[in-house]
Specification:
heterodimer, A: 543 residues, alpha+beta, 3 domains, five-stranded antiparallel beta sheet, B: 369 residues, mainly alpha, Amino acid/polyamine transporter I, 14 helices, UPF0353/GerABKA_families (chain A), membrane (chain A), transmembrane helix (chain A), Spore_Ger (chain A), Spore germination protein A1 (chain A)
């Protein structure tokens, strides 16, 4: 069945590529003009710029004359919306226009670069392709009469929003800054947390047309070179026109491309990325998206929330156990309801069974249909809640709460017990901190409901075994997805179902952090000061 | 090597345990009690374990000689091409039959106890389907999946036994060895054959990554399952007495039915079946994996996966033809023929092969790991 599905998918895939094979994909060809060398004649260059940026009305070509002593004509070329006008006027143009001295051999690009232009990031480019792309990226190009190269400098207009609170992963106790759409800001947020030269930030580019900047971040010496190599190779293999924000490029990076589970974790929390980096994971950040992605990632680590490490370990463990329970509830609760009401009534204690049956008395549908209806309604509500403009939010909660809940029961479409089950499932789904995992769980519910409808708990068990087999076969960049559980590594169980106290977290996770296995020295367990000695703070001596 | 997977010695131990115990814990107590009476636990704990250890020793010795091949791959090397291939083919057929016995055990159990109106074919398709998916994913995945299932299996049965512990009447177990050692030996026939399934070591040995710990794993499995099975048997007989236990088909299931905690925790036999199913799917997956590897190596195929599907279908059909839903036919096989069948396949032939290998100096004797 699955194989058949795969072959069909492959067929579809194959046919598409066949059509494209004949024609060169359009982004790989550059403009004819872009292949020409940069001329030393300013007029020619101007014409070529105009040709390249044909029909780009936001392009500004400003002609200036540098230096009062030996005047040289120059062009300042930039895309207006991308450049900060204040900085352009006050720093760049003023510096260029007010050049007093001039070197004996006349004004050259190299001299301008070294002596005049007050910018940190400045590059000299000799090819039109680079110059064109640079200007398209928002750099300012400076052409000088008689020079065969161009200076590119950055005076970006700040078009990103300010750092705000995380919207998808809120916490109570923990830092409240989140990534935003600007890659530089995001890296700054990370650098702010890791003041070490070990933090590597490698710049990459995705998207042949969009040329989206991406940064690979990791801690040098904590990650194997093979992993870094593998990641870079997979990223370089991506050939798409534009890197959409979100999960689009993630799908090129998965180990198991057909799996429902996505062992790549997106996060908008710098502290979460930071925590994973310290455990030997790798982060990939993109321009234009507030979500960095983390890998390798395991299912148990997707159940962990950063807050587990900010709260006291007893409470953190307690809550984490609940989250695991929530994970299982979210998958199995509706199917259990179906199995028990249709097949295994004997499992329920008699008084409860009587009340369940009584509550289902007027309901015309079998348990499966009833549960399916409610689950579908719930999924619709969730989706509507996400899509709706803010102003309609109230409507949805009223419609959802009253119509779907109360009225459906009163109309005997569903039984009140089922409403509890569905509500509990819904709540449980959103206790999973990982967005991707909770989405997967939302989908997984339905196959299990069908299995329960066919075979009762037997179907559910067979389905769970399939699920276990599948999960055991998954890998995230070579690391088994269920890793501290299967293959079992006893030491890592300290941070799986429970969260051990911080002074016990001596070793990093075995499979991701094995390059630098030890996190901290042993024997840091706090203890009260020794009874002897004058500076003892024991209560006996406090007075 | 047909499967590229790697398993650790602990994983091997747990897999072998599951292979032995997934079905044995339910079926063995009643069969043993018929012969050994109150001393059943002794035959399970003592005699069967001794036999299991013998099998483990031979298998490890044989495995050490051919550390990177499965059993059927080196048979031609040891015995010569034609006899070796013939024996390999025979082994494949025998194990396909054994797999269909497991399929039969499962569908008969679920059919007779729970799903009275569901055709056994449907149950088989479901179980075999799940197992086959595991086989397709390879031995490494099986071992890992088993690591997830094993704790649940052990924990659930321990809890079930603990909950029923207050019903135990120690008089049912006394006096020890009242009828002398002979009934104990006779009773050990069937569980011994089960314990001999540690033979699967020979089919998993090449995947083991710490080969020097093979004996530890194998012996550990035999001892662990000895203790486990003896506990189950002892509790069963302690609760029901040997007379009642030997007249029931699934005494352990009735044990679960006995449980009643505060009037809320009742009718726990359903949990038993969940555990049984999880265990049997693992067991079936290991059996299918071994069968298909045997078949593929005998036929000289490059990929064992092509043989999985036909073998799975064959076992479903064979189990349907041989046993249908007839527990008596199955139990007749299990208690009368299976021991001798098992001894030959698990102990006798591997022992002879080892002897031939030693005499003909085949396989490496000292392999450094």
């Amino acid at each position: 069945m699955f194989k058949l599905f795969l072959t069909i998918l492959r067929r579809i895939n194959g046919r598409k590529t066949k059509i494209k094979e004949g024609a060169q994909s359009h982004w790989e060809t550059t403009f004819e003009t872009e292949r020409r060398p940069i001329s030393s004649s300013l007029e020619k260059n101007k014409a070529i710029v105009k040709e390249i940026f044909d029909r780009c009305d936001d392009l500004v070509i400003r002609e200036i004359i540098i230096s009062r002593k030996s005047p040289v004509r120059a062009l300042v070329v930039y895309l207006d919306p991308m450049v900060n006008p204040d900085l352009l006027q006050h720093n760049l143009l003023r510096a260029l226009l007010n050049v007093d001295e001039a070197p004996s051999n006349g004004i050259t690009i190299a001299w301008l670069k070294e002596k005049v232009i007050p910018a940190g990031d400045i590059q000299e480019k000799k090819r039109w392709v680079e110059v064109g792309n640079g200007i398209a990226k928002g750099l300012v190009g400076i052409f000088v009469e008689g020079q065969g190269s161009v200076l590119l400098t950055s005076i970006f207009e700040d078009v990103s929003r300010s750092i705000s609170q995380p919207t998808a992963e809120p916490l109570i106790r923990g830092p409240a800054d989140a990534f935003n759409e600007d890659l530089r800001t995001n890296i700054a947020l990370l650098r702010k947390r890791l003041h070490t030269t070990r933090l590597a930030v490698e710049n990459l580019e995705i998207g042949e047309l969009s040329k989206t900047a991406a940064s690979l971040v990791y801690l040098k010496g904590y990650v194997t070179d093979e992993l870094i190599h593998e990641v870079k190779e997979r990223i370089q293999r991506i050939k798409i026109d534009g890197a959409h924000a979100g999960g689009y490029h993630e799908e090129f990076l998965q180990d198991n491309p057909y799996s429902l589970f996505n062992p790549i974790e997106p996060t908008e929390r710098p502290d979460k990325l930071y925590g994973h980096l310290l455990e030997g994971a790798v982060g990939l950040m993109f321009e234009n998206t507030p979500f960095a992605i983390i890998f390798p990632v395991t299912l148990p680590s997707q159940i962990q929330s950063p807050e587990d490490y900010y709260n006291h370990y007893w409470f953190a463990s307690f809550i984490r156990l609940f989250r695991w329970a929530g994970f299982f509830f979210a998958i199995f609760l509706p199917s259990f309801y179906i199995a028990i009401t249709t097949y295994h009534q004997e499992l329920v204690p008699t008084p409860l069974l009587i009340s369940i049956i009584a509550s289902r008395e007027g309901v015309p549908f079998p348990g499966f249909l009833e549960a399916l209806l409610m689950e579908l309604a719930f999924e619709l509500l969730t989706e509507a809640g996400v899509r709706l403009p803010r102003a309609f939010g109230q409507t949805i909660s009223i419609v959802g709460g009253i119509v779907i809940g109360q009225a459906a029961v009163n109309a005997s479409l569903v039984s009140p017990i089922l409403v509890i089950v569905v509500a509990l499932t819904a709540v449980a789904t959103y206790t999973i901190p990982s967005i991707t995992l909770s989405n997967t769980v939302r989908m997984l519910r339905f196959p299990f409901m069908i299995a329960a409808a066919f075979m009762g708990l037997f179907g559910v068990v067979a389905g769970s075994m399939l699920l276990i087999f599948h999960l055991c076969s998954l890998r995230s960049f070579g690391v088994p997805y269920l890793s501290p559980l299967a293959p079992l590594s006893m030491g890592d169980l300290k941070d799986t179902f429970i969260r051990a106290p911080a002074w016990m977290m001596i070793m990093r996770p075995r499979l991701t952090g094995y390059v630098e296995p030890q996190r901290q020295p042993r024997g840091q367990k706090p203890r009260p000061p020794a009874p002897e000695g004058n500076r003892s703070l024991r209560w006996g001596r406090k007075k | 090597m047909l499967d590229k997977g790697r398993i650790s010695s602990v994983q091997l131990m747990l897999v072998l345990f599951m292979v032995e115990m997934a079905t044995a814990f339910l079926l063995v107590p009643s069969i043993v009690a018929q012969a050994a009476g109150p001393d059943s636990w002794l035959s399970v704990l003592g005699v069967a374990t001794a036999y299991g250890l013998a099998v483990a020793l031979i298998c490890v010795a044989l495995g050490k000689r051919f550390p990177f091949q499965v059993f059927t791959e080196y048979l031609p090397e040891v015995l010569g091409r034609v006899p070796g291939k013939l024996l390999a083919a025979a082994y494949t057929v025998v194990f396909i039959h054994l797999t269909s016995v497991v399929v039969g055990e499962n569908s008969i159990f679920i059919h007779t106890v729970f799903l009275r109106e569901t055709p056994p074919l449907i149950i088989n398709l479901m179980m075999v389907g799940a197992a086959v998916y595991g086989v397709y994913l390879g031995v490494e995945v099986l071992a890992r999946a088993n690591e997830m299932v094993f704790p649940i299996f052990i924990l659930s049965i321990t809890i079930l036994l603990a909950l029923v512990a207050r019903e135990i009447d120690l008089d049912h177990l006394r006096p020890v060895l009242a009828n002398g050692p002979l009934p104990v030996l006779k009773g050990a026939m069937v569980p011994a054959a089960w314990r001999g399934e540690v033979f699967f070591l020979l089919l998993l040995y090449p995947y083991l990554n710490q080969k020097n710990e093979a004996l530890k794993s194998a012996a550990g499995t035999v001892l662990m399952s000895g203790v486990f099975a003896a506990t189950v048997t002892a509790v069963t007989i302690g609760v029901f007495s040997d007379l009642v236990a030997s007249r029931q088909i699934y005494p352990v299931l009735n044990l679960a039915r006995y449980i009643s905690v505060a009037g809320i925790l009742e009718r726990l036999e359903l949990y038993l079946i969940i555990i049984w199913m999880a265990g049997v799917i693992i067991k079936l997956a290991v059996f299918y994996h071994s069968c298909s590897v045997m078949a593929a190596s005998t036929l000289g195929l490059k990929d064992y996966r092509v043989t999985v599907f036909p073998i799975a279908l064959a076992t479903i059909v064979i189990s349907g033809r041989l046993y249908e839903t007839d527990y008596l036919k199955l139990v007749e096989f299990l208690s009368k023929f299976w021991p001798f069948y098992g001894y030959t396949v698990e102990l006798l032939i591997p022992g002879l092969i080892l002897l031939v290998a030693v005499i003909r100096k085949k396989g490496g004797n000292r392999v450094d790991f």
